[in-house]
Specification:
The complex is a heterotrimer of chains A (300), B (329) and C (313).
Chain A: H1 6-21, H2 25-35, H3 37-54, H4 56-59, H5 92-128, H6 130-144, H7 148-159, H8 163-190, H9 193-200, H10 205-241, H11 253-261, H12 272-296
Chain B: E1 5-18, E2 23-38, E3 43-47, H1 54-61, E4 69-74, E5 77-78, H2 87-93, E6 94-97, H3 111-121, H4 126-139, H5 144-147, H6 157-169, E7 175-179, H7 187-204, E8 207-211, H8 215-221, E9 224-229, E10 232-238, H9 239-244, H10 249-256, H11 297-301, E11 307-308, E12 314-315
Parallel strand pairs in B: 3-8, 3-9, 6-7, 7-8
Antiparallel strand pairs in B: 1-2, 1-4, 4-5, 9-10, 10-12, 11-12
Helix pairs in contact in B: 3-4, 3-6, 4-6, 6-7
Chain C: H1 2-29, H2 34-38, H3 45-54, H4 61-73, H5 87-122, H6 127-141, H7 144-158, H8 176-220, H9 225-252, H10 255-260, H11 266-276, H12 279-312
Helix pairs in contact in C: 1-12, 5-6, 5-8, 5-9, 5-11, 6-8, 7-8, 8-9, 9-12, 11-12
The chains are: A mainly alpha (300), B alpha/beta (329), C mainly alpha (313).
């Protein structure tokens, strides 16, 4: 009798309270994500990368634009420049960190913008159906007729290089796939019974979209957009590599790859470095996207 | 006594498209010239085989699918643009419970929110809508403390269907259409939900249209019953009299196919022969004639009309109309 | 089925029109007067003006468009104002050079992709499969142009066994010396198709295996030839469709690899055109490559419809 602990009485109430709450879908996705070590690691790497890139002056000792004719193409481990210098004598480590700013921006921003435009158009097409759907999807088909890199080159090649045109070109290249996936999931959701029931309640389009469609559709779209970021980073660097993206003397990974290429015969290893950054960043986003997809695949 | 719902000449044909220019190749005559009335406070059962047009009729009544022809009048007021009742107002008077209890609930919303959605959309404040949702949960036998914040996947089929009923009641309708609402439930749960429906009907002074392919359930819950075949009404009348004394050959066959617990009533011959025909190309004249043991030439030439008898029963069959040309008339 | 094929072919027309309109719009949006783009700046004003008249450049935009379209349809892709030769000639030879890379790359990538994907699927769960997954993720995250540079660094600079650039002579390789130039670019180009195809094949084979053969395989213990044949036959259609698309990407998206290896293909041509601001060459190349991509897409759809129909029989 004396041994009836207070805890024992408290427990059922707590369990009851938890049972009453019910776990929403997003809560369960978050819980699964938290337990996925690989995804957490990727997120950590990306956050670290982002921090370094934003607070670049804190992590670098040299000015990325300042070159020195005497210190061209110094190898890795050279005193004062732990990754060596590039073909004009600028510190490679500084160039890489500062370069991350433009590379990440040029890779992520287009996906974000395309998500807004493409997602909106796709959901509109999927929900409206009929002529609106046909019109939007046919337009997307015309853009789809180009391989993404070709479209990006067409726009930047003719309109001119530079960060703005790069972001514009990649946004336009990413809108069609986002329109397609948004339209597909929205069309699927539109035919579900609970949407019909919502219509039977007399709800108008906006309310149905707000309460019933969006929450069911955003998940897959977001996963797809995240996987597009990894492609965006590779394509953005690729455009700069061709001379169509970021212009010199800015630091950017693809541009650095192009510049250092000429020095391949002098120091083959140095050329590998910017590419490694592109690779790591792209891989992190890829694995993040995979983890997100697995977490969202909650069996109900 | 003015009927609560009067339906006249309801017709819906679905075109089948195909070919290089997406032309209409054929037409599915899902619902063809269906007319009936529902009085306030009664339960009208609608029975028929799969594909006879029951669910399409329900969707036409709810205006989820646009009509081709026909009129629908609720409480004397015609429904349609410009005329008496708008779609939105109709939805406040008439609601529906669907068959698939799981698919009819948004998996991302807590069930109280699913119930509160209707009132919310019609202008009620969120807190008031949720309060009403909790009251309705109580009314359908679910403790709001335990169930309000649950998600559909955390509930059983019977519980979900109660939620669907609560949702249908949230807009305080006068007529509720139950489209195979208990068909997917286990028998014991089905009985509970049926009893709940009967209680609710009395408590909230409702009128029901109960659609089902299960003849026993229809008999249990309905006052009158309407029998459909391939998009047409073949018989209509008080449920007990139709079950005891079916007049249309299809109704007779349907009822004799019901297994009975009574060893004295055994089915000796297969009641229906032949394959169920295609709603795409229904037989000319009387659509049942290809399976009817009493079919004659006139049945192929002239479609029978639903003639109302003096006893409140209506049948669409040439055999029962004198002067139709049928030998048995 | 034929109805579908006809519809698909007809649908290509508005798409191609849309593509041409897009390219034309881009040309017009380019900074500077259109004639300045079509004609080198040193040309005296009278000639420029007469060209304006001749190409109907002083008329409304849509008339210019139709004039341009008309010229395209008869094969007049314009004149490069860097070399003053017809674009069509340069483009044709450049395309055949790209094909010289794309075909072997496709063969290599597809065959390795199928083998790797099937191996991974049949050995599901073992270290082989896990290694495959790791490789696949790596492959998709690698910038293939960077891989090209790394390969050059290893095989040309450090080991000095393979040439780093160029074709080593024009036309189809007739000697081992010439053929050596093909190796690195082809390998680089084959990476992406290999990755994409192997992932699809693995997924498809796994799906088929889960359908039908679980019990039989367990009972029999080993894979028999018939099982293998059946599985591959069922996995083939979608794999073939993807291969077609990947080949289209190889043709249209080769510019990055061609830049790394200084290969004079369509990508290299585009590169030069960008560098020289040679708008006729650039726009014509983009248009032709996009058209080829659309045509390949249609062929893939039609083939898939045909294969589907045969399989259903």
């Amino acid at each position: 009798m004396t041994d009836t602990p207070a805890i024992a009485i408290a427990e059922p109430v707590e369990a009851l309270r938890r049972a009453q709450q019910g776990k929403s879908y997003w809560k369960r996705v978050w819980e699964r994500l938290r337990r996925d070590k690989v995804t957490l690691a990727m997120a950590a790497i990306l956050i670290a990368l982002l921090t370094m890139v934003i607070f670049a002056p804190w992590f670098t000792a040299h000015d990325p634009y300042q070159g020195s004719v005497l210190r061209r193409l110094k190898p890795i481990g050279f005193p004062g420049h732990w990754l060596g210098t590039d073909e004009v004598g600028r510190d490679l480590w500084s160039r890489m960190v500062y370069g991350g700013r433009l590379s990440l921006l040029a890779g992520v921003m287009p996906v974000f913008l395309a998500l807004l435009v493409g997602g909106f158009l796709g959901i509109l097409a999927g929900y409206a159906g009929g002529l609106v759907n046909s019109a939007i999807m046919r337009l997307a088909d015309v853009l789809y007729a180009f391989p993404s890199i070709l479209l990006a080159i067409a726009i930047t090649g003719i309109l001119g290089a530079g960060l703005k045109n790069t972001i514009l070109a990649l946004t336009i290249a990413f809108v069609p796939p986002l329109v397609r996936i948004s339209e597909a999931v929205t069309t699927q959701a539109r035919h579900l019974d609970f949407v019909e029931a919502a219509r039977a309640s007399g709800a108008g389009t906006m309310r149905i979209l707000q309460y019933h469609i969006l929450s069911n559709v955003l998940g897959p779209i977001l996963v797809y957009a995240t996987s597009l970021i990894s492609i965006g980073i590779i394509l953005a660097a690729g455009l700069s590599f061709l001379g169509l993206g970021v212009t010199p003397p800015n630091a950017e990974w693809g541009l650095m790859l192009n510049n250092l290429r000429q020095a391949l015969w002098v120091d083959p290893v140095i050329c590998a470095l910017p590419g490694v950054m592109i690779f790591i960043t792209s891989m992190c986003f890829n694995l993040l996207s995979d983890g997100l997809r697995q977490a969202m695949d909650v069996r109900l | 006594m003015r009927p609560l719902l009067a339906v006249d000449g309801l017709t819906k044909h679905f075109p089948l498209r195909g070919g290089p220019l997406n032309r209409t190749k054929a037409v599915v005559q899902a619902v063809d010239d269906v007319s009936f009335e529902v009085g306030a406070g009664e339960t009208l059962g609608i029975v028929g085989e799969s594909g006879c047009g029951k669910s399409t009729t329900a969707r036409l009544l709810m205006h989820l699918v646009p009509l081709d022809h026909g009129t629908i009048a609720f409480d004397g007021k015609a429904v349609g643009a410009g005329a008496g009742l708008s779609r939105r107002d109709l939805h406040r008077q008439m609601q529906m419970v669907f068959q698939d209890s799981y698919a009819s609930l948004n998996p991302r919303l807590p069930v109280a929110m699913s119930i509160a959605f209707g009132p919310l959309v019609h202008g009620l404040a969120k807190s008031a809508s949720l309060a009403r949702a909790r009251d309705l949960l109580q009314a359908v036998g679910l403790d709001p403390m335990l169930f309000a914040n649950r998600y559909p996947h955390e509930l059983s089929g019977g519980q979900r269907q109660r939620i669907n009923v609560a949702r249908a009641l949230a807009l305080e309708p006068r007529l509720v259409i139950l489209d195979e609402a208990v068909s997917a439930l286990d028998k014991s749960i089905e009985a509970q939900v049926l009893n709940l429906l009967i209680d609710i009907k009395e408590q909230f002074d409702l009128t029901y249209i109960f659609i089902s392919h299960d003849l026993n359930v229809v008999r249990f819950i309905s006052d009158r019953v309407l029998v459909m075949y391939l998009g047409k009404v073949v018989e209509l009348g008080p449920v007990d009299r139709i079950y005891r004394e079916p007049r249309h050959p299809y109704t007779k066959a349907l009822l004799s196919a019901m297994p009975s617990m009574d060893p004295r009533r055994r089915t000796m011959d297969a009641p229906l022969s032949g394959d169920p025909p295609n709603p795409i190309n229904p037989p000319s004249g009387c659509r049942f004639r290809t399976r009817c043991p009493f079919a004659e030439a006139v049945c192929a030439d002239v479609p029978p009309t639903l003639t109302m008898g003096h006893d409140g029963r209506a049948v669409a069959c040439h055999m029962l109309v004198s002067g139709s040309g049928h030998r048995r008339a | 089925m034929w109805a579908y094929i006809v519809r698909r072919l007809l649908y290509a027309v508005p798409i191609l029109l849309g593509v041409s309109m897009l390219v034309f719009a881009l040309i017009h949006l380019a900074p500077g007067d259109v004639v300045d783009l079509l004609v080198p700046p040193e040309v005296p004003k009278e000639i420029a003006d007469s060209l304006r008249a001749r190409f109907a450049l002083d008329q409304a935009v849509y008339i210019q468009y139709f004039a341009w379209l008309g010229r395209l349809l008869v094969g007049d892709l314009g004149i490069s104002f860097f070399t003053n030769r017809p674009v069509a000639d340069e483009l044709f030879s450049a395309l055949s050079n790209t094909l010289m890379l794309a075909l072997p790359a496709a063969l290599l990538g597809f065959s390795l992709g199928v083998v790797l994907g099937a191996l991974a699927a049949f050995n599901r769960g073992t270290w082989l499969d896990k290694a495959f997954s790791a490789t696949a993720i790596t492959g998709v995250s690698l910038p293939h142009y960077w891989v090209g540079i790394v390969l050059v660094a290893i095989f040309s600079v450090i080991l000095n066994v393979l040439p780093a650039q160029g074709m080593g002579g024009s036309g189809f390789p007739t000697s081992w010396e010439q053929a050596r130039h093909l190796i690195l670019p082809v390998v680089t180009l084959s990476l992406i198709p290999m990755g994409v195809i192997s992932r699809l094949v693995r997924a498809n084979v796994l799906e088929i295996l889960s359908h039908e053969f679980v019990g039989t395989l367990h009972a029999k213990g080993l894979l028999s030839r018939r099982v293998l044949y059946h599985v591959m036959k069922n996995a083939a259609p979608s794999a073939l469709a993807l291969m077609g698309l990947q080949f289209g990407y190889l043709l249209g998206g080769s510019i990055l690899v061609e830049t790394v290896f200084n290969w004079p293909g369509s990508g290299g041509l585009m590169n030069l055109a960008i560098f020289r601001r040679d708008v006729p060459v650039l726009s014509a190349t983009i248009l032709v490559l996009a058209t080829i991509f659309v045509v390949i897409n249609i062929l893939v759809d039609v083939l898939q419809a045909l294969i589907d129909a045969r399989m259903r029989r």
